[in-house]
């Protein structure tokens, strides 16, 4: 079996249903949809996401994107042991299907400790201000914390080999901070980041995002602060030993 596509969804819209069904018709791999504790009123929309390639899994109560991803990873390890890798994608239609297909091909070729990021073009004139400003901030903090230049730290389009899922399940975080923690933890234990340019579609200035400005910004930036001070402490200990 080749790769599998994992998509966490919270409170879908009509656009979500259209995107998922269009995607299922275009890609030739299994698609796992994780319902991240959406209210019962959204179940009719989930029911309309129908295709032989689609498997839907769920749990009660909204627990966050990070939890949904890890829940999906654990199901994949248990039920799809023969796959080569996993591509994670967002459900808001920002990722072009062509870009997702490109990631599915690339994840089959992953070698050793390596993972993929679908990197977007964040030129000012092509990006809603909130997305532009937020990505510039996180990219800067990420460089200060890790020493790695990365144009897009917030992309949800990522690719992992089947062998990396056990490491992904160990990474802390249940909400948006989980994907930041991936970028901090995996390189630290020897994983190499490979970037793949992708196009992004912003509908209505990215209003469909479930990102909460204050609560989730705190969660996203907290790992950088912890990682930064942890690195400083380690350096001071090393200096003290000499």
From TrEMBL:
SUPFAM superfamilies: Nucleotide-diphospho-sugar transferases (SSF53448). One of its GO terms (biological process) is protein N-linked glycosylation. Residues 27-159 form the Glycosyltransferase 2-like domain. This is Glycosyltransferase 2-like domain-containing protein. InterPro entries: Glyco_trans_2-like, Nucleotide-diphossugar_trans.
């Amino acid at each position: 079996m080749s790769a599998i596509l994992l998509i966490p969804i919270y409170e879908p819209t009509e656009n979500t249903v259209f995107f998922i069904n269009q995607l299922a018709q275009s890609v030739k791999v299994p698609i796992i949809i994780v319902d991240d504790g959406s209210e019962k009123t959204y179940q009719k929309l989930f029911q309309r996401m129908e295709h032989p390639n689609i498997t839907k899994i769920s749990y009660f109560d909204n627990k966050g994107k990070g939890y949904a991803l890890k829940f999906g990873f654990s199901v994949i390890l248990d039920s799809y042991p023969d796959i080569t890798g996993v591509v994670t994608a967002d459900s808001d239609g920002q990722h072009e299907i062509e870009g997702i297909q490109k990631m599915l091909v690339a994840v089959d070729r992953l070698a050793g400790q390596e993972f993929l990021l679908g990197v977007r073009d964040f030129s000012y004139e092509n990006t809603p201000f909130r997305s532009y400003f937020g990505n510039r901030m996180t990219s800067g903090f990420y460089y200060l914390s890790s020493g790695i230049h990365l144009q897009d730290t917030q992309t949800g389009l990522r690719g992992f080999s089947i062998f990396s899922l056990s490491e992904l399940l160990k990474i802390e975080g249940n909400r948006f901070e989980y994907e930041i923690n991936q970028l901090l933890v995996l390189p630290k234990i020897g994983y190499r980041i490979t970037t793949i340019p992708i196009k992004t579609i912003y509908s209505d200035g990215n209003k469909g995002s479930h990102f909460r400005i204050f609560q989730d910004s705190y969660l996203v930036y907290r790992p950088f602060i912890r990682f930064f001070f942890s690195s400083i402490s380690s350096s001071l200990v090393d200096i003290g030993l000499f």
